[in-house]
Amino acid sequence: MSNVRVLVGTRKGAFILTSNEKRKKWNVTGPHFPGWEIYHVNGSPVDPKRLYASQSSGWFGQLIQRSNDGGNSWEAVENKFTYEGDPGTHQTFDGTQQPWVFKRVWNLTPSLADPDTVFAGVEDAALFRTADGGKSWQELPGLRSAKGHLWQPGAGGMCLHTILLDPGNPNRIFIAISAAGAFRTDDGGQTWLPINSGLKSNFELPDPTAEVGHCVHNLAMHPTRPGVLFMQKHWDVMRSDDAGGTWHEVSGNLPSDFGFPIAVHAHEPETVYVVPIKSDSEHFPPDGKLRVYRSRKGGNEWEALTKGLPQEDCYVNVLRSAMAVDKLDSCGIYFGTTGGQVYASADSGDTWAPIVRDLPAVLSVEVQTLP
Amino acid sequence: MIRVVLPIHLQRLANTGREVELQVDGQVTQNSILDALEIRYPMLRGTVRDHVTKERRAFIRFFACGEDISLEPSGVPLPEPVANGKERFMIVGAMAGG
Known about the structure:
Chain A has no helices and 30 strands. By secondary structure, chain A is mostly beta strands. In chain A, the strands form 8 sheets. A 4-stranded antiparallel sheet of chain A has the order 3-2-1-30, with no helix packed on it. Chain A has a 4-stranded antiparallel sheet with strand order 4-5-6-7, with no helix packed on it. A 4-stranded antiparallel sheet of chain A has the order 10-11-12-13, with no helix packed on it. In chain A, a hairpin with a 2-residue loop joins β18 and β19. The radius of gyration of chain A is 19 Å and the shape is globular. Chain B is α+β, with helices and mostly antiparallel strands. Chain B has one domain: Roll (Ubiquitin-like (UB roll)). Helix content of chain B is 22%, strand content 21%. Chain B contains 3 helices and 5 strands, in the order βαβαββαβ. Chain B has a 5-stranded mixed sheet. The longest helix of chain B has 11 residues, at 30-40. Chain B is globular and about 30 Å long. Chains A and B meet through β6 of A and α1 of B.
């Protein structure tokens, strides 16, 4: 029987939720690293016992933790992230230039082939890589050459929050930065191309179709179809069928096309999930109803998924890294809220139930499907 | 031996008690204490001061002999009671945030 392990990062520690393929009864451990902000916990696809966690605090800075036993024990590894050369400056809210300063790690994405190789997306936005299990980190500075001087922070900071590795091409990586946009490398990270053609940021940018500067909130792909990308932008849900070369809007009948996370069903590449949020100034669900929206047609036509989710007086948010899917035959969907709930659906979103209700604000959710 | 008090989060990280004792060779300064601390507990590198600039992190304060010495130059010798171990060098997380 298969098992699932849900890795939850919160404002005050990490939690690990485990269950069998029925996903009815859950074992909860944590808080791991109590009192620390855990922006992301993620596992190696080739060695599921190998986990990495981004642990940070306003007092003590950034730490990286590594586990070799599925999260039972942890060891701190290298936490030194130094930009290559003179990182120069980037734009800030008032249009002035500010120097690049490392603040924290938002995303840890282990390689699809090697448990010792991990990519780290950081704030101020840059991409780092370790090839020795976290003993050292090196920047891939070519990314900042993609008009980095025009990037600017979103409200949450100038963060590289999304990393997608192409399963069919180890040299191709997609990343997203708020507020710079989406970028792609086809040479293993040496050079990067902004892939923002078709995005329109009418309320955020002086030039709504600028090559960079868009506030991309999250990207998703299906591993069997890595040329098709889905994007939750600040406003607008977008789709690309040419690996980011061009984008078109697929918001369709959503009650709001503002939101943070986006995810693709494990077995249905045209089934996509978003969580509409009222607006950029009101970060809660429209009408106080927590609804996941599912499209089975790759966008445009969306249905509300409500069974088991609060449908009145609900004013939580779901952050960009806080939704994930498992790979069991009946695909599981998981998301965490700023109110501390982690909801799970074991039937592709048809019905939902909380795994836990009272954690600290959830920053990230990842799922491992274990043999 | 120099006696250093750590905040709870760094105690857990370094797997120590509240107070650690360090051998510091030469002048006892903020810098030399933190150098010795980071050699003994490498997992604390970057948590009290910046890896590269060695500047104290903004929400960290240093106390000794009942005084806040955070703004004293980091290379200046500390008071004799700290150097001879009668008084503790305290690393404190500032009260801020929630």
